[in-house]
Amino acid sequence: MLKCPSCGKGKVLSGYLKVKDECGCCGQELHHASVDDGPAYFTLLVVVAMIFPMFALIYGFFEPEPLLVALSMMALATVLALFILPRVKGVFIGLQWAKRLYGF
Ligand SMILES: [Zn+2]
């Protein structure tokens, strides 16, 4: 998911969310890939979709402190989002490249 869409070997991101100028492997230019907030919205959607059923599950089996649940869910959501975001971004860049959506 985080690999160059052209050769599938080089990495697309340098650092956490920084898009590389070009693939270090095949030289495919990546700097014009601008996916903006798309990945962030998508990540939010996925995280929310994952968290809500967990609330139902937890309250189905236990009777936990609401504050405790809220806090642990916030922590979980943050970790999930941080884990998913770079991967979603890689996918968006790949899709953009595949559909030639970048600067003509
Ligand atoms: Zn490449």
Q: Quote the distance from N terminus to C terminus.
A: 25 Å
The distinct ligands, each listed once, are: zinc ion
Q: Describe the global form.
A: elongated
Q: How many strands? A: 2
What level of helicity do the residues show?
Answer: 55-70%
**Gyration radius over CA:** 18 Å
Low-confidence segments, ≥5 residues, pLDDT <50?
none
Q: Main β-sheet: number of strands, strand sense, barrel status?
A: 2 strands, antiparallel
Treating each run of at least 4 consecutive H or I residues as one helix, how many helices?
2
How many structural units, i.e. domains?
1
Q: What is the overall pLDDT average?
A: 83
Structural class, by secondary structure, is mainly alpha
Strand order of the largest sheet: 1-2
Instruction: Work out the strand percent.
Output: under 5%
In sequence order, what are the helices and strands, one letter per element?
EEHH
Summarize the structure.
This protein is mainly α. The chain has helices at 38-61, 66-99, and strands at 13-14, 18-19. It is 56% helix and 4% strand.
List keywords for this structure.
104 residues; mainly alpha; two-stranded antiparallel sheet; 2 helices; elongated; binds zinc ion
Layout of helices and strands:
Blueprint: E1 13-14, E2 18-19, H1 38-61, H2 66-99
Helix pairs in contact: 1-2
The structure holds zinc ion.
Zinc ion binds next to loops.
Give an overview in words:
The chain starts with 12 loop residues before the first strand and ends in a 5-residue tail after the last helix. Strand 1 (13-14) and strand 2 (18-19) form a beta hairpin. It contains two helices and two strands. The radius of gyration is 18 Å and the shape is elongated. Strands 1-2 form a two-stranded antiparallel ribbon. It has helices spanning 38-61, 66-99; strands at residues 13-14, 18-19. It is mainly alpha-helical and 104 residues long. It has one domain (13-99). Helix 1 (38-61) packs antiparallel against helix 2 (66-99). Bound molecules: zinc ion (ZN). Zinc ion (ZN) is lined by residues 4, 6-7, 9-10, 23, 25-26, 28.
